[in-house]
Write a structure and sequence with these properties.
single chain; 300 residues; alpha+beta; seven-stranded antiparallel β-sheet; 15 strands; 25% helix; 35% strand
Length: 300
């Protein structure tokens, strides 16, 4: 397993060095870029000692390594969107193995953005995430590492919706909306097509908080809340321009606002989640430019 540790930690060290110079970084496995073709990913993984095993029912590619490591390459439209690695350590080696890997990753990448001691840790940057987990999935407890690239959450949602139509996307969204973060109950989605940069580096765009089931009082239930806002990533502030709630795709309430003051959003509220998501998109896409005209408040 030492070779895998070298790949993981080595590529993260390079990413950390680059981020110090450019304020940008990518979370990738062993230096393999996101969105390369499945064939290119296979070639790069084979150079790293992995052997192709099979293509599964979803079209993803499974690999094995001589040291017992198992790897799945998740694909979206034939391109690499994510990687899952199952470490060969088993009970009673799992806990010390987890700690050793977590310590190495933290030394290379800095403190995780979120974590639970001896259970899991997650690092985020732009539209990428990396996670290490002390997993109980499967027949035996093991250490699981995942790298999630741009588009992976959208692909997994597409698969779930295809398997259970109408049970995943309660309020369908237009093209261009990308899932940035998810939890068991909700997800944060950014409209990447209208996101623009204004004077002073302020961003303007739309973000949705979507729930797996409707929430709110009986008289005003919704499963999607969309906010059009100004976002100040450097200052940690937001300014609301419009708010729309939907239930099963139907607009429940739509409000617009003019010249509201900037505010520092309440931690873990919708505005804070939207700010974090939009700023992650902006970090991944520094080429976002100024809008040619003030974005129209379109109701979808």
């Amino acid at each position: 397993m030492r070779k895998l540790v070298f790949f993981v930690v080595g590529c993260l060290c390079l990413a950390a060095d680059a981020s110090a110079a450019t304020a940008q970084r990518d979370l990738v496995f062993s230096g393999i870029p996101w969105r390369v073709t499945a064939d290119s990913a296979r070639t790069l993984l084979q150079r790293r000692g992995f052997t192709f095993v099979r293509q599964d029912k979803d079209g993803d590619h499974e690999y094995s390594h001589g040291d017992g490591t198992l790897l799945t390459a998740w694909l979206q439209n034939g391109r690499l969107a994510g990687i899952m690695v199952i470490d060969p350590a088993r009970v009673p080696q799992v806990s010390p193995r987890y700690q050793a890997l977590a310590d190495s990753l933290e030394a290379a990448q800095g403190k995780p953005d979120t974590s639970v001691a001896m259970s899991w840790a997650r690092w985020e940057w732009g539209l990428t995430e990396m996670m290490i987990a002390n997993s109980t999935a499967g027949s035996a407890r093991h250490v699981e590492l995942t790298w999630e690239g741009p588009g992976l959450s959208d692909e997994m949602e597409r698969r779930a919706e295809a398997e259970h139509p109408g049970r995943v996307i309660l309020s369908p969204r237009p093209a261009g909306y990308t899932i940035v973060s998810s939890s068991g109950l909700s997800q944060t989605v950014v409209d990447t097509l209208t996101l623009s940069r204004r004077a002073g580096g302020v961003l303007h765009g739309r973000v949705r908080i979507e729930y797996v089931r409707s929430v709110g009082p009986d008289s005003a239930m919704f499963d999607s809340a969309e906010y059009e806002m100004d976002f100040d990533c450097a200052g940690g502030r937001t300014r609301l321009a419009a708010r729309t709630t939907r239930l099963a795709g139907r607009v429940q309430r739509a409000d617009t606002f003019n010249a509201l003051p900037w505010e520092t959003p309440r931690a873990d509220g919708h505005y804070a989640r939207g700010l974090r998501a939009v700023c992650r998109v902006a970090a991944a896409r520094p080429q976002i430019g100024a809008a040619r005209a003030s974005p129209a408040r379109v109701r979808h």
